[in-house]
Amino acid sequence: MSSQARPWNFSAGPSVLPESVLRQAAAEMLDWHGSGMSVMEMSHRGKEFGQICSEAEADLRQLLNVPDDYAVLFMQGGAIAANALVPMNLLGRSDAADYVLSGSWSVKSEKEARRYGDIRVAASSGTVLESDGQQWQPWTWVPDAASWQVRPDAAYVHLCSNETIGGVEFSDWPDLAALGASDAVLTVDASSNILSRPMDVSRAGVIFAGAQKNAGPAGVTLVIVRRDLLGHAQAACPSAFDFANVAKEGSCFNTPPTYSIYIAGLVFKWLKEQGGLAEIEKRNIAKSALLYDYLAQTGFYRNPVHPNFRSRMNVPFTLHDAALDAEFLSGATARGLLQLKGHKSVGGMRASIYNAMPIEGVQALVDYMKEFERTHG
Amino acid sequence: MSSQARPWNFSAGPSVLPESVLRQAAAEMLDWHGSGMSVMEMSHRGKEFGQICSEAEADLRQLLNVPDDYAVLFMQGGAIAANALVPMNLLGRSDAADYVLSGSWSVKSEKEARRYGDIRVAASSGTVLESDGQQWQPWTWVPDAASWQVRPDAAYVHLCSNETIGGVEFSDWPDLAALGASDAVLTVDASSNILSRPMDVSRAGVIFAGAQKNAGPAGVTLVIVRRDLLGHAQAACPSAFDFANVAKEGSCFNTPPTYSIYIAGLVFKWLKEQGGLAEIEKRNIAKSALLYDYLAQTGFYRNPVHPNFRSRMNVPFTLHDAALDAEFLSGATARGLLQLKGHKSVGGMRASIYNAMPIEGVQALVDYMKEFERTHG
C-alpha cells in the first residue's frame, strides 16, 4: 500500500501515525530483532524491553533537550488522570495551586484539582459555565502572563499549552520568577502539542502529555518532572502513580504499557530522522499556514481564534451554514478525508494536523474545502 | 514462520500470546477492516473503535458468563494501581476491609490498602516480614475460608486468586454470606489466572486483572464490578479511576488504551474458537499435570507448594543445587526455552504456562529438565 493509498486521517486523537512506524511494527510483530518474541510478549524486566525503554527515554530526552535534573516517566491514564496525579504529587507540602484557563482542557484540570488543595484561577480567557464545564465558550486567545494573579505561596501554576478543542495554543511559556512567584513551578499539559515544536523544558516543573496525538498510541502518558519535586506526594496518592516511585524504578514500578512505549519509541526515532523538532516545527508552520491562510480569505468557513493564538495542531472551523455540515462530512469521507467532525461541545469541523500528517494531506483538505465552497457557496 | 519456529516463552508477564492473534494484528496494522486506519489511529469515539470495544466486552462477558448486573471496564494501571483503586472505590461508605494473605501479591494489596481505610488481615498462610514485604516467605497453601476472621462491618474481603510468584492458586472462592459477612463483597485480584478456568463471577463484588498474562498486552486492566457498588468512591479518588465514571462512559471516560483493548479482544475471540473456558481449563490441567507429575518424581528439582494449591499457571521450582542455575538457564535459552528465571524474591526457576502456551511447549521443557537431570544428576 503506497502512502497515497491511505486516506488522510484528521482525528484529534488517537490520531495518525507515521506510516513507516506502522510498517516496522507490523514487520516486527512476531519477532523483535531476532528475540523470537513480540514486544507484547516480553517481560518488562528483561534485557530486550530494557533496551526498548531506555532508548525511548534517551531519544525523547534528545528531541526535547531535557536537562539531566529532570526525570522522564512513562505512565498511564492520560491527561485526565494526570489532572489528579499532578496535584496529588505536588501538593504534599504547600496545598495552594493556581490555574490559567484557556479552554476546555485547562477548565477540566482546574476542576479536578479542587479536590486536592486550595485551587484558584490565576487568569482566564473565557467564561466557565459551572453548570456544565464541558459546554463550549469562545476561548479565542490565551491570557497574557502579565495578567496572571499568582499567589506567592502557590506550589505550582498550571497551563494547557494547546487546547485541542478550542484550537488555542501558547507560543511560549513565561518565566514564573519574573511574575514574582519564584517558589512556584509551572505545570504544563502538553498533550496535543508536545514534540510539534521545540519547548524550553527548564521553564516547567512538570510537563505531561497523553501520547495519542504526537507521540504514539493511547495508553502511555509522558511525564517530565524536575527531580527536586519528587518525594512529596499526598498520602492518598496511589503508589503506582507516585512520580518518585516511577522515577526510581525507571518506569517499571508496576508493569508499564510496554507495547505503547515501543511504538512511542519508534515515533521518536522517526522524528529524529526527519531532522528533529526544529525541522518538524517548520513543517507544522507551513501546514497550518496553508489552512489558516485559506480560512482568512473565505467567508464560507470561519475560525474564531485570534491570529496570535491559533493552534498549529488543531484547526476548528465552522461552515457559514451548519445545515451543510452533514454533506460536507460525507463528501470528505468519500474523498478519503477522515474524522473531520468537530468536538461535540463545539460543533462544526476540526482538522487535527499533527506531526504525522504531511502537507499533502492538508492540501487535499484545502482543495476539497475550496471545491465545496464553489459548489455550495 | 511456523509455530515450531518460535521459541517457547515462559515469561510470567507480559507473556506469550496466541500466534494467530499476533499474525492478525500484523496483517491489520495499516488498515483495520477497510477503514484505512490502524486501530492505533482511530478516535476512541468513532464507530470503528466503538465496535472493537463493544465486541471485546461482549466476548469477555460470554467467556466468563458475567451477569448483567455487573459492569465490565477496561482501565489502566494494572493490579498495582488497582490495589489503591479498589479501596478508593469501595471504602466510601464503610472504611473497613479484610485481606486474605497467600503470597507476595496479596501482601502488596493489603499494604497499599492501609492508606485508605481500616484494614485487617482476615487470614494468612505465611509470615510477612514488615521490613521487606517483597522478601519471599514459604507461601505454600491458601487459608481455608472456614478460618477467615471477617469483621461484620467489612465492606469487602480481598484475595488474590493466583499468586504469580509463589505459584499458589485458589481452586474456588467462598460464599461470604456463609461466613457471616453477608454485607461484605469479595474482591479478587485475578491477574494471573483470569480466563484460565471458569470462575463464578457472582461470588465477587469486584474482579480485577492486569491483562498481560492471559488476556492481552500490558496496558489494559480488566475490572468487573457489581453495579450496586458503583457511585461511592472516596473524595480523593481521581475521576479517571472512579469505576462509576468509567462504567457510565463505556470505558471511554478518558481515552482508553485502544490498541491494548483491540489485542485483548482478539485474544477473547481466540479463546472462543478454542472452545471457551471449559476446554481451556482441560488443557491447563493437562499442561500443569505434565510438569507437576515430573516434579513429583524427581529429587533433582523441587516445588514446595502443597498439592491442593499448586497453580496451573505459574510453576516455580528450584534445582537441588543452586550453583547449577546459570547453566540450566543458558542451556534452556539455547534450546528456545525462554524467560524461565524465577522471580528475584524467590530465586530458582519459574515456568509460566498461560493459556497461549501449548502442551508441546511444556513437553519441551520437561524433556529438557529430564536431560539436564541425566547429565548433571
Uncertain segments of chain A of ≥5 residues (pLDDT<50)?
none
Helix content of chain A: 25-40%
Number of spatially distinct domains of chain A? 2
Average pLDDT rating of chain A:
94
Distinct helical segment count of chain A: 9
Rg over C-alpha atoms of chain A, rounded to the nearest angstrom: 21 Å
Strand-residue fraction of chain A? 15-25%
The H-and-E topology of chain A, N to C, reads as EHHEHEHEEEEEEEHHHEEHEEH
What is the CATH class name of the largest domain in chain A? Alpha Beta
Pathway (chains A, B): Cofactor biosynthesis; pyridoxine 5'-phosphate biosynthesis; pyridoxine 5'-phosphate from D-erythrose 4-phosphate: step 3/5; Amino-acid biosynthesis; L-serine biosynthesis; L-serine from 3-phospho-D-glycerate: step 2/3
Organism (chains A, B): Corticimicrobacter populi
Domain Aminotransferase class V (chains A, B): 8-365
GO biological process, one term (chains A, B): pyridoxine biosynthetic process
Task: Describe this protein's structure.
With 377 residues, the first copy, chain A, is α/β, with parallel strands linked by helices. Chain A has two domains: 27-272, Aspartate Aminotransferase, domain 2, CATH 3.40.640; 276-376, Alpha-Beta Complex (Aspartate Aminotransferase, domain 1). Chain A is built from nine helices and 14 strands. Chain A has helices at 19-27, 47-64, 78-90, 104-113, 243-248, 258-274, 276-297, 325-334, 359-376; strands at 8-9, 70-75, 96-101, 118-124, 156-160, 162-163, 168-169, 185-189, 206-210, 221-226, 301-302, 314-319, 337-338, 349-352. Chain A has a seven-stranded mixed sheet with strand order 2-10-9-8-5-3-4, with helices on both faces. In chain A, a hairpin with a 4-residue loop joins strand 6 and strand 7 (168-169). The longest helix of chain A is centred in the C-terminal third of the chain and has 22 residues, at 276-297. The radius of gyration of chain A is 21 Å and the shape is globular. The two termini of chain A are 36 Å apart. At the A-B interface, helix 1, helix 3 and helix 6 of A face helix 1, helix 3 and helix 6 of B.
